[in-house]
Amino acid sequence: MTEDFFTTYLQQIEQQGNLRKIPSEPAEELIDLSSNDYMSIASNRSFFEEFYNQCDKNGIYMSSSASRLLSQKQKDYDALECLLKDLYKKEILLFNSGYHANTGTISAIAAGNTLIVADKLVHASIIDGITLSRRDFLRFRHNDITHLRTILSKKASEYDRIIVVAESIYSMDGDICDLNSLVALKEEYPNVILYVDEAHGFGVRGKYGLGIAEESGLISQIDIIIGTFGKAAASTGAFTATSATLKKFLTNKARSFIFSTALPPVSCLWTKFVVEKLTGMDKERKQLLDTSEYLNEKFSAYNGNIRSHSQIVPLITGSSNKAVALSKELLKRGYIALPIRKPTVPEGTERIRFSLNAKFRKEQAERLYAEIKDII
């Protein structure tokens, strides 16, 4: 096998400052502002100890040893799905990751005469799901409801179904979609299926941590909600919240569900424990939002028209090399804040993306801002 093509590609992206490497685990304790541990649960040993102490040690299974449809170990999956069903008042189907949930759900439901219309900035897993569906696909300008309305007015009569896809909180810019306007459009066009990915909203927003949909009072009006456990819930896996009919359909058609070994039952046991805790962490959610609002305001002078309103706080550097240099300098000063580069974000909007967490206090944010001003 010749590797010339691959070597040349790697050399090119290294010259552009875009070569990615798996980071080493730091030898010292640093302030981590790049993980998605939004509610500071993954770094809280007391959570683990309480979970472990309450577990029936004889009832813990480390592996499902089969796909969900073939596994004989179902009680932990059922218990987690029942908890989420009670919270969302929707049927729940578990997936192995947010990537699995998006690729499996979208590629399955985009059946027959379907058009998919997605926000320009939706996550790569959504794009991959759309690609796998092999259905017609259009994008509307980011958070531009007028552009989406124009597309629907032109295309609604041509398709049996139109799946409109958005994220509640966008993973790179940290801004929030206008769910009220999306729901209004869905009511105007009865063949629209509204699909909202709450990956960065679940656990963080809403009275019980169910996301922007809960915060907006719109859970019942959204056809499909995707939530993930690998961020605020400090676990692994994801879920689709939808109708009974669509859950049954996905159980039979979502390839990422059917053809994957199911999550370890112990992960579902832990996730259920965490989600029960999350529903009562409104104080921590408010604290996180307050700190986020402070830092977003401070960074606004650097960010042009990008305006975050969440715990995802970008600082635009404008080039990969500048983002890498700033990240290295922050590391020297005790912060893990990794660069986000092309092609993850468009050229010219390279950045440091700060992912804030509940234990990162406003006074720490003030010190961070002072450090950044000193560097740049």
TrEMBL record:
**Domain Aminotransferase class I/classII large span(s) in chain numbering:** 29-370
Pfam families referenced in this protein's UniProt entry, alphabetically: Aminotran_1_2
Can you name one GO molecular function term for this protein?
8-amino-7-oxononanoate synthase activity
Query: Which UniProt key words apply to this protein?
Result: Pyridoxal phosphate, Transferase
Q: Which GO terms describe its biological process?
A: biotin biosynthetic process
What is its cofactor?
Answer: pyridoxal 5'-phosphate
Supply the PANTHER family for this chain: 8-AMINO-7-OXONONANOATE SYNTHASE (PTHR13693:SF100), CLASS II AMINOTRANSFERASE/8-AMINO-7-OXONONANOATE SYNTHASE (PTHR13693)
Q: What is this protein called?
A: 8-amino-7-oxononanoate synthase
Q: Organism classification, top ranks? A: Bacteria, Pseudomonadati, Bacteroidota, Bacteroidia, Bacteroidales
